[in-house]
Design a protein that fits this description.
Purple Acid Phosphatase, chain A, domain 2, five-stranded mixed β-sheet, alpha/beta, 3 helices
C-alpha cells in the first residue's frame, strides 16, 4: 500500500493538485496534515474518486476537519495531526514525545506538519514523518512524503516537489 503525505500548502492548491495528479493512479490514500484545508476541498471537487483524509492546522480557521485522526493503512497504524498542539517546533525531546503519543494510541507511524521542515526518523518502535511543505519550506526544500507499507515493512521517504 502507498500513502502520499502532504502538509502546509497554504492556499497553493496548484501544488496539491500536481502532487495528486502525479500519484493518483499508484496511491491508495492521500493524507493531508493541515494548513490548506480549503485547498483540499477544492481538490476533492476536481478528483472526487481520490481517497483523501485530512486534519485541521492552526491556519484552518472555521474548517471542519478534525484536529487528529487515527487510520489503518495495511500494516500501518497511523496517528496524524498538524502538530501545533504537540509543540513540534521544539526539537528538544520531539521524537520521544511523538513516539510516546503514537504508542499510547497503538500506532506505529506518527505524521505531523506545522514546522515546514521535512524529516523522517524511527524512534522507539515508531516511524515519524513530517513531509515538509511544498509551498513554503523553512529549509528551502519543497517536499512531501511517501510511505510504502507492506507485510515486509514500512518505508517512509521524502520527495522533492514536482
Amino acid at each position: 500500500m502507498r500513502a502520499i503525505v502532504i502538509s502546509d500548502t497554504h492556499k497553493h492548491v496548484d501544488l496539491l493538485r500536481r502532487i495528486i495528479e502525479k500519484h493518483r493512479k499508484e496511491a491508495d490514500i492521500f493524507l493531508f496534515l493541515g494548513d490548506g484545508e480549503g485547498d483540499v476541498e477544492d481538490v476533492k471537487l476536481l478528483y472526487p474518486d481520490v481517497n483523501l483524509v485530512g486534519v485541521k492546522g492552526n491556519c484552518d480557521i472555521g474548517r471542519d476537519f478534525p484536529d487528529e485522526e487515527r487510520i489503518t493503512v495495511g500494516e500501518g497504524r497511523i496517528l496524524m495531526f498538524h502538530g501545533h498542539h504537540q509543540n513540534v517546533k521544539n526539537p528538544e525531546g520531539r521524537k520521544e514525545r511523538l513516539s510516546s503519543l503514537a504508542r499510547e494510541k497503538d500506532c506505529n507511524i506518527v505524521l505531523y506538519g506545522h514546522s515546514h521542515i521535512g524529516d523522517t526518523s524511527y524512534f522507539d518502535g515508531v516511524y515519524i514523518m513530517n513531509p515538509g511543505s511544498p509551498a513554503s519550506p523553512k529549509d528551502g526544500k519543497p517536499s512531501y512524503g511517501i510511505i510504502d507499507i507492506s507485510e515486509k515493512g514500512i518505508l517512509p521517504f521524502l520527495v522533492p516537489c514536482p
